[in-house]
Amino acid sequence: MERMRTVVRGVGHNLPSQVVTNFDLSKFMDTSDDWIVERTGIRERRFVEPGTTTTDLALPAIQMACSRAGVTPQDCDMIIGATLSPDFFFPGIGTVLQNKLGMAHVPALDVRAQCSGLIYGLATADAYIRAGFAKRILLVCSEVQSPILERTNRGRDMAVLFGDGAGALIVEAQACAGGEAPSAKNNVRGVIDSIMGSDGSGAQLLFLKAPGSVVPGFMTQAAIDAGDIHPKMDGRVVFKNAVTRMVEAASNLLERNGISPSELDLVLPHQANLRINEAVREKLGVSEDRVFNNIQKYGNTTAATIPICMSEATEQGKLKEGQLVMTLAFGAGFTWGCNLIRW
Ligand code: ACO
After folding, report:
1. Is 13 one of the annotated active-site residues of the chain?
2. Catalytic residue among 14, 270, 293, 339
3. Domain 190-342's class?
4. Which among 98, 247, 281, 311 is least buried, having the fewest CB atoms inside 10 angstroms?
């Protein structure tokens, strides 16, 4: 069988038009623009209008990715969805999108890796393509989180962090000419390497409890009253783990591919907190101009942050074909990881 590589052919994104500033949030809870900007870098985020679902939000992002790749969704033979905020508790967004997009009855699976969704999704797509199980995969990362945020003083630590948004990638199998696979040392386009990790001892340090089988009856009025239908986090512990794991994963990826941080053209980190990304950048020794951040405008859109960064960086001419690019994320689970890509 011919050796295959995984090339990102097109990226798209979509954000709701409703802008919610820090000042807007301060009308519902004791918070301030200063507090939020100083601790997170976030100035505003986008919220959907009531009734917009996660797959609704994804559709324009998919359309943009397809048009940039010069294909249609019907040309894809697999869907991978990544979200923590699906349309339904089950099934996942992959199958819902298969139907909405009028695609053939292709395999559709959902990745549940929260903020690491793009990294797990791309690593999974790469594995399927290299194994010969898929030729062109639609990878969709979409989140509608605004309805699950508790916009009161009790929920203010989480409510100020998150926003809604969607991103999509078309990834395609291409033959390795002469058997040469993408590497950090050649100019062959494609996914070079991925690292994924997890530590479930942190599951309840960043989670949404109900509905769930830990709740007697799956969902109860008591769970609603206790606020278990909203996400909860131990922010300080998550912050420390995020920095440690992201630095560890990126260092391992660079070392095993024989490259130094200065050889990276662009780093596309998850957008959870500007201070986390600053700490990681400094520890890795990557210069400021090689890290793309947009958390200031969108907050944390969980699985969607990295594809939105990819799409915007492309539009701004910062992400170009042939560049050596690293993605990097940490999130609930805990999960973390990174991909190394010759773009
Ligand atoms: N506005 C004003 N004050 C607030 C707010 C708010 N929105 N939220 C909390 N406070 C208060 C707290 O009650 C506390 O008050 P106290 O000192 O009187 O007790 C004080 O501000 C400090 O709170 P801390 O939690 O200690 O603040 P910290 O400096 O740690 O910043 C933050 C909090 C921004 C959440 C930070 O811990 C963080 O970014 N953590 C990591 C987030 C992250 O990476 N998440 C992972 C991805 S998310 C995912 O995977 C789904």
Report:
1. no
2. 270
3. alpha beta
4. 247
